Amino acid sequence: MQPKTEYGKPDDLLKWSKQTKNKLESTRFLALRMLMNGLSRQDVMDVFGISWSTLQKWVRLWNKGGKDFVSVGKPTGRPSKMTQEAKDFIVRKIEFTSKKTGERITGLAISGTLKKSIRDQIKEKCDLLLASQDGMPPAAPKKNSGKKG
Predict the structure, then answer these.
(1) Are 1 and 64 in contact (CB under 8 A)?
(2) Rounded to the nearest 10 degrees, how much is the dihedral formed by the CA atoms of 83, 88, 90, 95?
(3) Residue 20, Cβ neighbours under 10 Å: how many?
(4) Band of the pLDDT at 102, cuts 50, 70, 90?
(5) Closest Cα to residue 95, out of 105, 85, 106, 84?
(6) What is the SS3 assignment for 119?
(7) pTM of the predicted model, to two decimals?
(8) What angle, 0 to 180 degrees and rounded to 10, lies between the N-to-C axes of helices 107-134 and 84-101?
(9) Neighbours of 102 (CB within 10 A)
(10) How far is CA 72 from CA 24, 28, 41, 69, 140, in A?
(11) d(CA 115, CA 83)
(12) Strand, helix or coil at 33?
């Protein structure tokens, strides 16, 4: 099955591939363009590192409705687990530390701070849950004496 030219010519596909900011969409347009220009399916699959079934799907979508059917919609996948509260915390931490020390903050430092904050929150929730099951008040948080070890 070859891509139909009724929805667009090879030059249109090239133009659309340059206009889009979505890499997958651009790849689809260029693969279809190569097929329209007479390259073999195997050559197109080798160039883009795609399977026969993927290329076949793109051709079917194109022949069904052209550009709109080949276009990539809303990204799929797992939604972010980070809450808005956590994002706000990161921003505040960066702004506070940057103003205080004048130093740049690395991603590793932010990650460590977040992990510690999340660990503390989980521990607090577990303590509350255990205390409510035992009927005892939760343990008071330990004070850090500043000594390591």
Answers:
(1) no
(2) 170
(3) 17
(4) low
(5) 105
(6) helix
(7) 0.51
(8) 130
(9) 7
(10) 7, 9, 22, 8, 53
(11) 14
(12) helix
